[in-house]
Write a structure and sequence with these properties.
The protein is mostly helical. It contains 11 helices and 3 strands. Among the domains are: about 40 residues; about 60 residues, Receptor-associated Protein, CATH 1.20.81; about 100 residues, no CATH class. Helices cover about 75% and strands about 5% of the residues. A hairpin with a 5-residue loop joins strand 1 and strand 2. Helix 6 packs antiparallel against helix 7. The protein starts with a strand and ends with a helix. About 15% of the residues are buried.
Length: about 325
Amino acid sequence: MPSFEWKRRARGGQDQTGVLVADNKEAAISVLRRQQIVVTAVKEKGKEIALPKMGGRVAPQLVAIFTRQFSVMIDAGLPLVQCLEILGSQQENKAFRRALLQIRQDVESGSNLADSMRKHPKIFNDLYTNMVAAGEAGGILDTILQRLAAYIEKSVKLNAQVKAAMIYPVAVISIAVIVVAVILWKVIPVFASLFKGLGADLPLPTVIVINLSNFIGDFWWLILIVRTIKWLLALTVMIGIGFGLVRYSGEAQPGNSATIGAAHGAAGGGTTGVQDASRGGTATTETTGAGTGDAAKDSAEPSKFRGWLKEWQERISLES
């Protein structure tokens, strides 16, 4: 049976280590938990050296599903550690499973949920962790998680729509470039040899096309490299624009300002967030009133002009 080396932090701040024999890592953690030992790290002896892990990114769809399930379990009253353990054990993605189990272990060791998620920036970005921190501070974690799930789902949908919209123009441009390249590479040389045999003077556009065909036939490899770099740059710009649209459209979606303000106000012992929300409503009312006054003023100006016009018409009729 393999041996596992565990480490924990004592109350005095010192690290304590030990060795335990178990069937696997999960069994070792269960034995230590029954012994009321809260560990910070458990690893199998003889496997400390490992190759660096590649990737580590998780699809946004998986994060949205996890957030939705997490909010439902928190709303049902399940403990935080139990929720993370259940969701982590059911996760099929290995990188996501490792991250969730590590978060559960950190939370069980005494860290809060937001700080534990900040250790995995490839899965949980700054917006996600900051919203979770606001939910923890205000005691509305389930509401914040529901808003995050809705925001991520909308972002994924918009990103898919942007990608689908780019397929048609990219396909048309690619086919057009390929057709023109084939014509210049295979068809134009046939006409060039025919014109050369006739010995006639060719117009300037025809000479330019023939020279372009000769250049493509001689330096096709250089054109291929430049074209590849150009397409990669264009694809990067399009993806950047797509992510920018996603971020811009959902920037104000995940958290209602009044809700987050109320959360921070509850954490700080005051009602600043609610007051800010009420002030925002007052400002909106004043703005609406000002807009109504401007509209009435604009509508009154044409009637005043018509009155002046009628007065001048009467004067002209009297003089005549």
